[in-house]
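DM from R.C. (forwarded with permission)

"hey, sorry to bug you on a friday — could you get me a structure for this? deadline for the figure draft is monday and I only need the backbone to look sensible"
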Amino acid sequence: MLYEKKADEKRHFLFDKYTTYHPYVPLPHYHSSIEIFILEKGEYWVTVEGERRKLAEGDIAFIDRFTPHTSGSVDGSGELSLYVLVAGSEYFDNVRWLDRQTLATYTERREGFEDILALTSLAHSIRERLDDEARCGFIRMLLGLLHGYADIRDKSRERGNHAVIEIMKYVSASYSEKITLESLSDKFGYEKTYLSKMINRAFGMNLREYLNRVRVSAAKLERQKNPNKAIYKIAEECGFESENTFYRALKRYG
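My reply, with the result:
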C-alpha cells in the first residue's frame, strides 16, 4: 500500500511499456528497487519526494531506493510510449557507484538518448526470454549508459527522507486508528505546521486526503478478500467514522 512489498521480493523485475492512458494513480510509495521511466512519446507525470514533474518526449526519470514517489498519465489524449523498469537489488548489487552516487531524478533529452532508447527497446522486445544473468547484464549496461548521460549526485549530499518514510510506515500500519497532525506531531517530534508542509511536499496532498486514500485502498482490498463482510464493519476496521463517511471517500478517491 505504502511500502511496496512486492517490489522488494527476491529478484523482482518489472519491465513494461505503456502505450495507452491508464487512470489509476498509485498512492505515494517506496521500495528498495530502483525505478526508471523512459518516455519515447507523449506526456507523463512523475512525483518524487513531493516534486511533481511532467515528462516530455525524451525525458528520463530515475527513482533511487527508498524514495517516496508516484506517477500517472497526463490525460487520455495523444500518443504514449513509455518504458517503465523496476529492478530489485540483486540485479544492480555489483554496480558499486550506486553505493555512493545517484542519478539526477529528472533528465531532459540530450545527445545519447537514442542509444538508451535502442538498448531499452531491444531488451523489452525479448524480455520474456531474459534469464537472471541477461537481466543483470541489461540493467548494468543501462545504468552504465545513464551514468554517462544524466547528472550525477553524491548521495552524502542528498537530503534524507527518513522522516517521511517513517510516517508512511506508521500510517500504513495504523490507518485504522485516529491519526491527526497533532498526533503525528507528538509522535515524531515535529512542529505541526512544519509537519503539514513536509507531508504536502512529499505526498502531493494534505494528510486528510492521504489518509482517506490509504483507508479506501485498504477497504477495497478487504472487500475483495471478504465479499460477504458487512460494509459498516469494513469501514470501521479501516478507520472510517461511519459507513456514509466510507462511501463519500470511496466516491471521491476510489
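R.C.: lifesaver. The first strand starts at residue 13 and ends at 18.
me: no worries. The chain has eight helices and ten strands.
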